[in-house]
Amino acid sequence: MAQQPQIQAVQPQTRYIKGDFVLFRNVERFWLGKPGHTFVGRVERSWTHVDTGKVLYDLTELGSLSYRAGIDPDYMRPLSAADAMHDIDTAPLGEPDTGAMTPAAVAWLRQHLVQDSSTLPVRR
User: Fold this and answer.
1) pTM of this prediction?
2) Which residues make beta-bridge pairs with 56?
3) In 10 A of CB 50, how many CB atoms?
4) Cα(18)–Cα(103) distance, rounded to whole angstroms?
5) What is the pLDDT of residues 46-57, one digit of tens each?
6) Are 38 and 82 in contact (CB under 8 A)?
């Protein structure tokens, strides 16, 4: 009987740089069912652990501005600008009811109305 090759899922290695936004999960809090296990953070620096040789990251938690050191990248995921801006990019600008828009889209429109109303499309 021929042995079939085993397939293993390999997580792609992601390198983060200072200023990147990431989603981080505190795995201990997660497995214990404790609240506050996942947060959005900003990468402050990366460094290599002397004993393991693994690259670790220091993050600032955006909700509380707490500094978290030695974060394992296996429990981090990148947050892309496209995801952060999706609600604005897909805002229903043709809707007469601004309640149909997300708060971020409304805030963006208000900011541009105040700054320079000549850049907005002419209302029909």
Assistant:
1) 0.63
2) 47
3) 6
4) 28
5) 999 999 999 999
6) no
pLDDT tens, position by position, 56-95 = 999 999 989 999 999 999 999 999 888 888 877 777 666 6
> Could you give the CA distance from residue 42 to residue 65 in angstroms, rounded to a whole number?
10
Q: Identify the bridge partners of residue 71 per DSSP, sorted by sequence position.
A: 57
* DSSP letters for the chain: -PPPPP----PPP----TT-EEEEE-HHHHHTT-S--EEEEEEEEEEE-TTT--EEEEEEETTT--EEEEE-GGGEEE--HHHHHHHHHT--TT-S-GGGS-HHHHHHHHHHHHH-GGGSPPP-
Measured distance CA(108)–CA(85) in Å, rounded: 10
